[in-house]
Amino acid sequence: MTLSHHNPTACRAISDVLARVGDKWAVLVVELLCNGPLRFTELQRSIGNISQKMLTTTLRGLERDGLVTRTVYPTIPPRVDYELTTLGRGLHEPVKALSDWARANIDRINDARRVFDAERD
Q1: Edge-to-edge strand ranges of the sheet holding 79-84
Q2: How far is 116 from 24, CA to CA, in rounded Å?
Q3: What is the distance between the alpha carbons of residues 25 and 57, in angstroms, rounded to a whole number?
Q4: Can you tell me the mean pLDDT for 74-93?
Q5: Exposed end of the chain (fewer CB within 10 Å): N or C?
Q6: Which residue spans within the chain are E strands per DSSP?
Q7: How far apart are CA 17 and CA 10, in angstroms?
Q8: 83-86: long-range contacts at Cβ-Cβ below 8 A with a sequence spacing of 24 or more?
Q9: Distance between CA 5 and CA 105 in Å, rounded?
Q10: How far is CA 101 from CA 28, 48, 51, 65, 96, in A?
């Protein structure tokens, strides 16, 4: 599928996938799960500023897209683990590259934002 010419079907397909995997919460979840399965509370604690509702929504979307599996263990209280699927593990490399790039360039981005905002005031 090439985008060298206007191809609405290809654009919609790419947009649909990027809407899921480009979401900041999805990126963080994929990065955290790359080291193995985690429980919901472990994910929430590691991410920090995500609400229970948003984490639930993110995990359900990733599960629906075949990137994450959810395993429920019949204990009291029930234990639920989340893990990357083979498809999800394939997403880890580009997600890690993007995360590494963001960490390496955050200072430059913040500087550019300050300059841009100062020029607009």
Answers
A1: 38-39, 79-84, 68-73
A2: 23
A3: 10
A4: 93
A5: C
A6: 38-39, 68-73, 79-84
A7: 11
A8: 83/33, 83/36, 83/37, 83/38, 84/30, 84/33, 84/34
A9: 32
A10: 14, 21, 26, 25, 8
Rounded to an integer, what distance in angstroms lies between the CA atom of residue 119 and that of residue 8? 37
Query: What integer pLDDT is reported at residue 10 of this predicted model?
Result: 76
Cα pseudo-dihedral 118, 49, 96, 82, rounded to 10: -160
**Residue 117 CA to its chain's centroid (Å):** 28
Please state whether 39 falls in left (phi above 0), alpha (psi between -120 and 50) or beta: beta
The residues that bridge with 69 in the sheet, in sequence order, are 83
